[in-house]
Design brief:
- By secondary structure, this protein is mainly alpha-helical.
- Helix content is 73%, strand content 0%.
- It has one domain.
Amino acid sequence: MFSCHLPSKQDLLVIVHLVCCVCGIGSLSMPYIFAQAGPTYSTVAFVLNCFFNTYATVALSHCFLKLRHVPHIHTYTDLAVHLWGRKGSFIVQATQLTSCFLLPVAFLVLGGATLLPAIFDGAVDMSTTLWIVVMAVILLPIIYIRVLHEAYIVLISGAAATFIADVLATVDAYVAHGDELYEPTDNVGFTNVLDTFGSFALAYGAALIVPQLQHHHPQPEKMPTALVYGMLLISGFYVTLGALGYAHFGC
C-alpha cells in the first residue's frame, strides 16, 4: 500500500505534525551522539533506528487502514484491545504511562538545571529544584491541551525554536572555535554504543500520534507514504547535525 507520489496538502500537514512532534531539544546532542561511539557504530545505530522506527510507524498505519471500518478502533489502546484483549490494553497503557512519566522528568531536569538558569543568569537567583518547579508550572497549560490538532501552534513554535537553536549552535561552534579541532577518542566501549542506541530511540518516538493523524486524514490510504517522507526528513536533519558537529570537533 506504499506508493511514491507527491504529497498533497493533507500529507504535508501529516509530515509537519510528525516532524514537529519528533524534533526536540535532544537534536542538539546529535554531534555528541555521533562522537560518543565513533562514526562507524553511530552510523550503524542511526541506520537501524531509522529503519525499524520507520517500519514500525508505517506498519501501525497499515493496521489502522485494515481496521478503519471497525467503529470502535480510534486509538493505540483500541488497537491493542482488538488484537490482544485486556492484556493488550494493560501492556500499551503501561508502556505509554511509563514514557509519559519518564520523558517529562528528563526534560524538566534539563530545563530546570540548565536552560532556565542559563537564560536568567545573574537576573534571578534560585535553586535548581525551584527552577524545575517553575518550569513545570509554565508547562501546565500545554499539558492540558486535549488533542493534537488543538496544539498546532505549540507544535510549530517548539519545532521552529528547536531548529533555530540547532542552526545557531552549529554556526556558533564553527565561528567561535574557528579551525580548532579535537582528536577523536579511541576507547569506545559497549556502554557508549548502548547509549547511542538509547538516544536515537528517544529521538524517533512517533507511534503515539499516528492514530490521531490518520483519523483526521481525508485519504488515510496515503498515510504510509506521508509517514515515510516525514521520517526520512527528520532523519536527514539528524544526520546533518551530527555530521557537521563531528566533522568540526571530531569528538
